[in-house]
Amino acid sequence: MSNAQRRDESLCRTTTREFILMSDNHRHCFILKGSPREVLPDFLQLCENFSTPLIAAHDVSQYDELLIPSLKRKPFKTCAFKQTRQELGSCYDAVLVDLTQGVSASALAILSGTVRGNGLFAVVLPHADWLSMADQELSRYLPWPYEPEQVYSNFKRYLLDHLKNTSPFQELKAHQVAPLPALTLLDDNAPLTDEQANAQACLFAEQAQSYVLIAPRGRGKSTLLGDSLAKLVQAGKRVAITAPNQDAIVSLKARFESHFEANTVTLPFYAPDALMDDSNQWDFLFVDEASMIPLPLLMALNQKANHCLFSTTDYGYEGSGKGFGIRFCQHLASQKTTKPLALQPLVLSQPIRWGENDPLENWINNTLLLAPKEQAKQSFDTRITFPIKDDITNKMLVGKDWIKENNLLHDTFQLLVSAHYQTSADNLRWVLDDPSVTSFISMTAEQIHSVAIVTEEGHLPEDLSLAVMQGKRRPRGHLVPQSLLAHEGFENAGQYGYWRISRIATEQSQQNKGLASQLLSYIEKSANTHCDFLCSSFAATPDVLSFWLKNDFLPVRLGTAKDQASGSYSIMMVKPLTQLATQQAIKWQSQLLEELLMNLLLQYDDLSVELILLILKQYSFYQSDIPSFVKLTAQDAHNLALFVDHHRPFDSIRPAFFKKALSLALQGQLIPKEPSHQLLLEAALGRNTEQTRRNANLTGKKAMHQSFKKLLSTVPPSK
């Protein structure tokens, strides 16, 4: 008998009464086996002394039916996996997660974080071979035409191995359980811990323009925020709080209200957009779950108060607070302020909802790769750099390969979490189970420097492509060909094969050394015989767009609405790998650029001029002539000459100036990062030029017009 088997047998013999003695405010973890009808009585017995337990599953209808007779005795709550995000911020004595029909990685992560210390977290597995059963959650991770019945789940194999070998869960035999003891009542007005009090003292000292509170779940962020808001109100300060939704701040609200007589003071909550429309300037503004709010909106909110506190989770359930921390905190640290500090981090590391070194928290974090191996925190502006001395090795891995590469898997996800604020536990299952996904990594010895996640798309049947283009079908996955068909009307876009770089990241200290570009070259070599295009779709910012342009990707689509997460327009780019694909890509790009020229005044009035110049500049690389509608007529040239050489008013030559600015941009004669060139296009588009004038060191309109005359007199005439 192996050690693991002896351990499992020993755990099966352990009764719940004996397990109680093992707890140090840690959560109790059990595996129950069987159907809902078989496991529910044992769960009810375990929860005899608990209030309002939660039951979650892919489909909770069976539990709803079985619980009806029990509701007279004790209220229960059920929740389908697709609804678990609504439980963020909730707190339960006990949670049962039924994994029989399917597994949701995000549900496991979210729900485990809602259980109190000494509470119960139980999972349900079937008596039958779980790995051979179709997983109804799997369809969310599979592109067309794959179905759950066709795909072996590497993630289930991975999760089961971790449940058996590394978890704190013990398997309970049916009808051999005793009720767990009742938990102490929660005190909404319990004293702050020393760590919370120190963070609050830093906040009340008002030494910084902005504060950032980044901590794992269960550390008392909500308590600290609610307590601080109440004390600031009592001190006569003008305060406000915002969050993505009010459901996430239930415990924060309870702490706030505990400071006042019932219904005498209302929590000053505002939705983010309502706050932006409010003309008030606050003394303190708190932004909870900040990593779920678009960065441009966060930057704007930072201007609404004398002091702003941004709170988020540094790893875990909503997506990555770490990626949020890197980007946004760098922005806050660089802001100009009259305060002694631009940014002050606040730290909460001691768990409050459960005991220190809680086995369930450790297992969830390690299994779902939600936390770094080492918990040591670095300051936001510190980067540890090290030289790359050895040769770089590239690796290509598919789902089943990761089962044998556990260390590489962990390091890969930590890199993705650091770079992409939307990386979540669900992405782990996607990488392990989606047959269209291939992961590429570059490393030196055991150190991973860059990683890219690539999905195979395209080769859609002609009838399906037609239905997509007509808006009648939306098959799962295939983002780029679907968008080119449905949004751009490119009739043959579905017939090509694409490798889409869905995620790409480089370790922070090794950025700007060409490592990501080297990895792209390796991907291109691997793709040459498999597809027609490499492609990417991402939130369009000048720095990210410049990276893809540098690697010879062509823009073929610009989104028409801003992404809610990034606050930016999305852009699609392709790199053709065959002669036929190159001809097609140039046609697609030409259509994008010509339509963009029209849409600049119709729907892109907030698209940055630097981004516009970067996109338009590509036209000159592949086209010998500019579009006819931006060519200057003889009268246009005459009007511009009167403006440049004489005293023709600027407002009287705006149409000619508009065409001239666009033609210069298309010919690559306007430098995207040059303020005076940005100013030229900004004025041509009729935008507010005040900030750009200051960047160009121009004091007023007269100086601005003189700069235009100088620029126009030094460039050659349009083609």
From TrEMBL:
Record localization: Cytoplasm
Pfam (any one): TmcA_N
Transferase found in the keyword field: yes
Domain TcmA/NAT10 helicase: 212-370
EC assignment: 2.3.1.193
A Gene Ontology cellular-component term: cytoplasm
Function in brief: Catalyzes the formation of N(4)-acetylcytidine (ac(4)C) at the wobble position of tRNA(Met), by using acetyl-CoA as an acetyl donor and ATP (or GTP).
UniProt protein name: tRNA(Met) cytidine acetyltransferase TmcA
Organism field: Marinomonas alcarazii
Gene name tied to this protein: tmcA
